[in-house]
Amino acid sequence: MNKIKLIALDLDGTLFDNSGQISEANKKEIQRAVSLGVAVVISTGRPFMGLPFDQIKDSGIKYAITANGSAIYEIETGKCLYESPLPDDVVIPVINYILTKDIHADAFCDGKGYTSAKCLSARSKLDMPESLLKYIINTRKVVPDLVQYLKDEGLHVQKMTLNFHKDKNGILVDREDVKKYLESNPEINTVCGGYNNLEFTAAGVDKGVGLKKLAGILSIPVENTMAVGDTENDIAILKAAGIGVAMGNATDDVKAIASYITTSNTDDGVANAIAHFVV
Q1: What is the 3-state secondary structure (H, E, C) of the chain?
Q2: Which CATH number fits domain 88-202: 3.40.640.10, 3.30.1240.10, 3.40.980.10, 3.10.20.310?
Q3: pLDDT, tens only, 168-220
């Protein structure tokens, strides 16, 4: 087995417990790995400004693959080291379509999150953990007209995240129609990031691509990397890494492609995976 020199960690459902906290055991194992010369990085669907800066402040984590691989940042400086946003002529028609639906949509641009005011009624009906909903509310700038705002500010979309609420029969409103629409577009890459959401980036962009880009920046062979995740948007990075680790709470499709399955996010799964492979 090749020696691990880089570990990429998903946040929600992986490094975080169900309350959005990083356990002490996880923190200690990350610090131990860093002390041994391992680069531990974040790999998330969140934008840069959605990172848990306070919680990772003393961890030794220096880099983050964000927005499902569409942007890589140096955490201390906020410098963007790599970016592959959606082309404007691709994403604008998609946003216009999305805004005809009763869903909550976020656009991640330049490391920040933006939401159209039209989506606030759908947001009030979302069924998700309180910590996650609080994160969404606190890290999104609400704008009157999302498309016009993007044009006026010259912003380019790194990723879109769509969250769906249920009707009185427990059916996710508009999800199937939107999923078919997105998956029919060859210029975008659509995955689920958890809680029945949909997320899309430019075609050919995913966390696996982000891992390879960051490994190249740090001059680390991809075969000397490990990635840990739990949902569909982690499959690409688990496949790309030398070792792909699924959380105990991961979806079945993630477990099916993993090299190793650790314990759950409420049972220090990240710490146990690092302890197993970094010796």
Answers
A1: CCCCCEEEECHHHHHECCCCCECHHHHHHHHHHHHCCCEEEEECCCCHHHCCHHHHCCCCCCEEEEHHHCEEEECCCCEEEEECCCCHHHHHHHHHHHCCCCCEEEEEECCEEEEEHHHHHHHCCCCCCHHHHHHHHHHEEEECCHHHHHHHHCCCEEEEEEECCECCCCCECCHHHHHHHHHCCCCEEEECCCCCCEEEEECCCCHHHHHHHHHHHCCCCHHHEEEEECCHHHHHHHHHCCEEEECCCCCHHHHHHCCEECCCCCCCHHHHHHHHHCC
A2: 3.30.1240.10
A3: 999 999 999 999 999 999 999 999 999 999 999 999 999 999 999 999 999 99
